[in-house]
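Progress narrative, work stream C.
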Amino acid sequence: MKFASLLNSSTSLSSLYADARAGNVLSAYMFVCEDSALLDEAVALFIAYRIAQNGQFTEKVADRVMRNGYVDVRLFPEGDKVKVDDVDRLVADVYYTPVELDKKFYIINNAHTANDASQNKLLKTLEEAPSSACIILKCEKTTNILPTIKSRCQRVELTPYSYEQLKEILLRYYQENDQFNFVLSVSGGFPGIAISAIEDKSKYAMFQIVRETLLYMKTSKDLLHYSAKWLAQKTRVKELLDNVERFMTDLVFLDAKEGSLIRLKSNVKDLLTLKSMGYTGEVALKILPRIAESKQKLEFNASVIAVIDSALYSILEVKAKCRK
């Protein structure tokens, strides 16, 4: 486990883990965090505190939980998204007596992907779960979770670390460089997201493509060149659009003199240059919904090249109109 010491020192988790050590576990929990790696370890530690004897070897038990090494710790769904069939399997199993432990744990990964039909199927079980069962929903977000489901689970929200805290954590394992500073800026304060971005150098490359596009795509004559650059990354266009959003959001904060809210702290010089080029807060605010629209088109399987051309053209168009 990479984050055990961080999780154990978390004030938002201390009372929950204390309850688990004391054997006081409810029938349903909803763990919420956009950092899936941190979320996995937080849930594994919670279960480990409940089942580890006398609190010993907790991390080893948590590792076993993460390896799916307990008969009575069941993982759902079978695929990436929660479907009705997954809930049916859980419901059919929940009333059976535990085999290995004194309590059965049902972990529903990606619970935020469950549609209304799946959630409604689960609702009665959450209301009437046997004392031998604990159902844990893991969500990156809760916007798609029905209010009736939310009301029947104890919510456990993992909060991000500050820029300074995260930097201190990462410097224990990594050297500070341009990629390191980029990772700090885009991780949202979550160590799992940061480490993933450090270990996958292509994420920084995607950021650099967007940085270059915004700094050097000045007229429609440049559009074809940068459209080709984006098209070469056609499987990662959403990631490119995410990076445009990061720049635009920080330009809004820069214009509003809200420096503490800027996430691309190592790129403030670039932000100032972009502002001088006409990317004011007003322009950025008008570009943001255009980028959101482009991302939505991608979700509905629109032509990738059409999405790219539309997004890049809209950036130039908005900037030009606001100058007039």
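Work stream C, second folded protein:
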Amino acid sequence: MKIKKLLSTVLATAAVTGTMTFANTAMSQDPAPFTQKDNVISVYDEAKGFYKGMAQGTTAADLLSEFADGHTLKNAKGEPIEGTALIGTDYTICFGEDSRKIVIYGDVNCDTKINLTDVASMLKHIAKWNVSMNLNAADVTVDDKVNLADASRILQYIAKWDVECGFVSWKYDLSKVDAPAEDSTLKLWFNHSAIKEYKTDAVPNDKHAFDMYMAKNEYEGCHVNLTSSTGHKGLSASVTQFKDKAGNTLPTELFFEDYFEVDTGDKYPDRLPPIEVKNGFEIKASETQGLFLKVKTDFDTVPGMYRARVDVKNESGQTIKRGYVYTYVWNFEIPEEPSIKTAYGMSAYAIYTSHNKLTEEHEGQLYERYYEYFLENRITPWCMPFDPTDERADKYMSDPRVTTFLVYGGYAGDRYGNEGRLDAEGAEYVSAAYDKIKDNEDWASKALFYMNDEPRFGDQLNAVESTKGFLDANFPGARVLVPTHVNYFATGDLSDVNTGFDNEGKYPAYADMDTYGIVDKFTTVLCPSVRLFTTPDMTFDGQIWYTQKATDTFGTLRERLEASREAGKEIWWYYAGDDNTALPHSGMVHRTAYWQQYDEDIEGVLCWATNEWQGVSNRPQTQRPLSAGAGLYVYNGGIYKIDGPIACLRTEIMRDGMEDVEYLVLAEELFGKDVADEYNHKITTDMVTFEKDAYVLEDIRRELGTKIEAAVNEK
């Protein structure tokens, strides 16, 4: 009753009582460095000159165990203490002649306790009475002020509310913790980001906490799964920002996992709306609801261990589940400019119609938000928000995250307003673009022409030749990309399965050539389908894509690609249809694709679409099992009244794979190609052989990251 009455008094007078800031209380003597062990609670505040982070009830033995031998403790009166004696504010830790103060937040009166006596002293101080108290210990909201907010916080702490009193330190500990109102009928468990759990038959693991490792300038994430045995309604979830023991924070987000059903009957997680639009959610009995936690580091992130807390509350607002996630940030960074070039299709028309904002007021804005989403995930949509001849496009052409942009062609027409015609009007436009781009080496290296798609027969291949002639005349040195998904022969010989077309004598120059040879002749960026990288002894989707006949006549695809590379051409590949980014595939299929790309020495990835939406972004439902989700790597925010994109789980996993490649590139630079290949071959050895266990991949990635950090620190 006393607590409630005093709390009411405090809150009622909040509007009329002043606050007081205070100066540091660092000791005049510059203390010698004290040696602490790893993974400790106490943290020394260099600016203010005291150790903090210890909770009420910390003993002398607890604190001394964190320091090297030779340290001692004294109480506020200067008397030695040890063993089970409690630590309080204004106590000191000593080493020889040197000493440092200790602050226990909330222990304002320096008696090792946090109680109403401390609150009374604070209220008197706020009312400008002359009282003896430790101002640092009173600043439990850690804002360099002592006011009614601090008094209220201590009252809440005494009343056992779920609040923190001052700076709360922590140890790295993956043990299970109980929430204040723990509910045993709901299980909270964590899992690796590349492990996608079904909604109806997920089996909870024993990971009640989770740890992640990451470089600077990287994203990392994990699944937070909730499995109900009885059914739960009105649930809400939240996450704190990741924080290290010095108070540095990392941007942290929590997402809800929306599930989609394919013809197999399985429900896969994929769409990731912010948790704020889904709180109040329900989990049916025996079902699992996934959440996705995501953290970001920057170039200036302080390396070391960080911790965040996930809380789940019931419809009454009680915290019924709690779990901790740790992130260790290595002391090295991955580059802002991706090592893998990308060109992904994205329809502006689909964006504006889905958001119902086809007005000049919104021109460019929504598209830019979706474009930026992909840049943040190391993917470049092939059309910029603005025509490359528009000065507003200059910032994107100069952005190191942008690896490519289309200049002209049918695949740019939807965005830039031209149709890619090979006529006088088209020549005028392309020449103008050339005049703007040609003298900027960075822009010229990104400019790309994608005007012909998947040529198979004579007329289509002839168009490839015509396009090359047009570009040679109007954009000398143009980077010309033509994706190929089959490798037919021009002889009309159908004796080899799926390898012939009727030349009809119209194109004698193509006699005895195959698709690859013709496209190679008239392009500068070779871009075969991923399927063509399977050898004749392998099958993909039940077919042989690069046949024995092609190998016998012209050599293996890899031999031909290497010859093209030596001739100065770029080597890409592309995804379409039933590829390894489709929804029903495991997350490891999505992620290891980029380890395979490094293994094959492929410079770039082309993908036909990113926002192939139907209706209101529910496309993955009830599709052919293998192609579900094809061409869809972002979701329409309009269904949640969000003027921008909704994240996609597969994109998160794909980005992780591209970030993995940055580790391999760093390893190659630091240790040589042989070492990078050694690590890569622990994950994949060919197009159909790859590691399927996400935790094995994680162990290898951590081993490599630790090796890179050691080399960087040594330098």
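Confidence is low (pLDDT under 50) at residues 1-7, 9-31, 492-506, 615-625. No further action is required on this item.
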